[in-house]
Amino acid sequence: MPAVSVTVAVTLIVASQIYGIERLKEFSVAGFYSIVPVSNIYFWLQSGYFDTVSQSNPFLHTWSLGVEEQFYLFWPLLLVAMKPRLLALLGGLVVVGMVFSLILADNHPSAAFFLTPARIFQFALGAGVAVLLTRHPALFAWDRHGSLAAAGIGMILLLSVFVNGNSSPFALSAVAPALAVSLVLCSMQGVTGRVLSAAPMRYIGLRAYSTYLVHWPVVVLVKMGLSGWPDASRIVLMLVLTWVLAEGLYRLVETPVRVTRRDSGRAHRFKLLTSFAIILCSGTLAATILSSSSQEEVVEPSDYVRADGHRPGYTVEELRQASRARARDGRVVLGCQPGDRHSFADFEQSACLARSVRGRSVLVIADSFGAETVIMLETVLPQARIMSASWAGCIPFYPEPGGNRSQGCQDMNSFRYRFAGESPDVGAVVIAANWQWWQAPESAFEYLNSLGIPVVIFGPRPIFSEQVINIINSAAFNDDLTPYLRVDLSARSAQLAEIVEGYENISFVDVWPVLCPDICLSNTTDGAAIYIDNAHLTPAAAVWLGRQIRDELDALVAALDAG
What we know:
Blueprint: H1 2-15, H2 21-35, H3 39-46, H4 63-81, H5 86-107, H6 109-114, H7 120-135, H8 147-162, H9 170-185, H10 191-196, H11 199-206, H12 208-225, H13 231-254, H14 265-291, H15 316-329, H16 349-352, E1 361-366, H17 370-380, E2 385-390, H18 407-422, E3 426-432, H19 442-450, E4 455-458, H20 468-473, H21 490-500, E5 506-509, H22 512-515, H23 539-548, H24 554-562
Parallel strand pairs: 1-2, 1-3, 3-4, 4-5
């Protein structure tokens, strides 16, 4: 707690020089939960498709500390109560916990990532190895040359290169790494133990906790505060800062307050009091700095003047209103865009797929980009009925997404593609997606082409590493959102356009040049906000974007007129 308290305090103080007051409030809440520690529960409750609150939060990494501390609450009880049958119990926890986690990952991926019950099998596996090696040291004594460690390290290297936690099956992204590390631990009695006990490895290991605490705040704050720096320079700066801060935290906070067996009762009490003093002083200092940051000292969006003299002209509250309007006008509130915490039964088919009285309809197949796509199409195609079949966090490809997507997502994909092919009311299909996680199989394009109706695929749009309003408020912002792109997807537009050329009934609409003509824009040409968060469009921006690409939707118009 002393080390994490100091980390939270220093991070908030530095962040107060970079972010506006709204974002600092979010960081303060997350920092408090990091110290308690229940930040894994907090981030689970905040989690969403793009995790706009958590991905750029400097305390995101503390979720794993929360899981760890929660495990330690009942681990001593197991040691005492189940000592004679501890190995059997741990073995059962590994098997039962793994099955539970597999089921949870299929239906609630965010819960499977953040919550302690889904991680029990990993803790039980490590605890089981520790008990096994303590009680039966001769069991792995044969591995003097580190064969098990070599196999485990080889697995870790392969997994780090080929496995993506966003799209890979749960068994590969969560189970396999734990098994690989267990192999390394079982090989500690031979050469592996001597290598890992060498002075350089001990140096790293002793500072592992402090390094873990400071590394993510450094990454987040350097990226936000120095976005204009060359990438190579930023990486070097991040590495140097992480090492310096970790060394300081280890020497000045973590080591002095650690209680050891050699400590007398007086030393024990002194270190305990010192720990509480550090926690109290850190919290008081951070609170004082934050409370003294008056609204006048924080740049608000409505007061920010860009280099060209243009004012964005919107506030945080206006963005909140735009978010509510997007949910209403994009039909999210009607159940037309469920997400990972829903089952397929939560999709309101009668409201979202209502038949048109004027002719055939346009079916929107999308992830969380579906809401603004509905608003866009209803503006530029007022004569058409727009059906919505969207699912937040669900890659909209036929026949189903790969990897650890929820059961509701898989059910939705099977349904909406079948509906597109079987319903006589569907005259055209529009697909909008977060192409950052694109892994579209060829079968998806072949199926869409076989429908015999016009299919329009909207290309990638910018996705930023932070909510755009916070970027505008940051000290480093210079009128260009491009340095804040989470990943540049402009090349993927060309790739998609090339693939689509081979299909008669599919057309591609590239929206990237509209949103990022020379630089990535934060406002429309009318001065309205483009983004609600770090990727989703405001209703005004959806209307504006639709008008910019109106001429590229001729195939839809012709099909609907003919219908």
